[in-house]
Amino acid sequence: MSKGVVKERKLIAVPSELVRELNEVANRKGVPFYDYTAEALEQALRASRMKRILREIVDFYAVMEMRKASGHVLIPRDTLNWLIKKLYPKEGNDLKNVWLDAGRWFGKFLAAKLHSHEAVEFFVKMLMASEWELDEVSLEKKENVLRLRLVSFTLPLENTELLMSYVEGVMQSLGYATENRECMRGMINIDFRKQ
Questions:
Q1: Residue 167: how many CB atoms within 10 A of its CB?
Q2: Is the CB of residue 38 less than 8 Å from the CB of residue 1?
Q3: Cα separations in angstroms, 33 against 10, 13, 144
Q4: Residues whose CB falls within 8 Å of the CB of residue 92, separated by 6 or more in sequence, listed in order
Q5: 61, 112, 167, 176: which could join 192 in a potential S-S bond, CB 3.0 to 4.6 Å?
Q6: How does DSSP assign 56-117, residue by residue?
Q7: Of 189, 191, 170, which Cα lies nearest the Cα of 110?
Q8: What is the rounded (10 degree) CA torsion for 62, 68, 72, 75?
Q9: Do the beta carbons of residue 189 and residue 171 sit within 8 Å?
């Protein structure tokens, strides 16, 4: 908001609990309530202009912060694909084990930071925001079974198999055993059962 310009003010109906929390945050930050709430609404409009909702942007930020805290790094896709293509023919099984172990470690990291059900949902959001070129990420819950479906129209078979190993490692550390799995170029379907 630009300083010094007086704008017309309007009253809007907002739940009182939300007003109380907003006021507490504004006070902690040492910012006038009006300025703090106006800024929040401006950011919601900015998100809308980006064809996004603010929750989506905040969730994406949380994913990026969690990735940074856990030691994940960004690598150009072409570089990753080149490395995998070069190593996979001779080291495929070893690579799968490395990715499985990396998934187990990250699953333990998530379990330490979040509650079990939150960790699974957060991991699914992370997959949606990943560099894996996933066109579809869906999680279906039926009784004690979680069915995870990942689809990419461009992911090579080798990358798909490594991603599956990583996902299985994460889910194992979150207390899920693989029940059924199907993997083909660019598509993974896995059923997990809570242990």
A1: 24
A2: yes
A3: 14, 15, 46
A4: 158, 161
A5: 176
A6: HHHHHHHHHHHHHHTT-----HHHHHHHHHHHHHHHHHHHHHHHHHHHHHHHHHHHHHS-HH
A7: 170
A8: 90
A9: no
Q: In whole angstroms, what is the distance from residue 72 CA to residue 99 CA? A: 13
Residue 180: pLDDT over 90 = yes
pTM for the model: 0.77
Backbone φ, ψ for residue 144 (5° rounding): -95, 10
What secondary structure letter does DSSP report for 42? H
Question: Contact at 8 Å (CB) between 63 and 129?
Answer: yes
The Cβ of residue 81 has, within 10 Å, a number of other Cβ atoms equal to: 16
Nearest to residue 95, comparing CAs of 76, 80, 110, 78?
A: 80
> Cα–Cα distances in Å, from 25 out to 32, 61, 155?
10, 19, 44
Q: Is the dihedral of CA 57, 61, 67, 70 positive or negative?
A: negative
Residue written as tokens 């070893």?
94
Q: What is the pLDDT of residues 71-112, one digit of tens each?
A: 887 788 889 889 999 999 999 999 999 999 999 999 999 999
- Other C-beta atoms lying within 10 Å of the C-beta of residue 88: 19
Please give the structure tokens belonging to residue 154. Answer: 């461009």
pLDDT > 90: percent of the chain: 58
* DSSP-derived pairing of the beta strands 145-151 and 176-184: unpaired
Contacts of 113 (CB under 8 A, 6+ apart): 66, 119
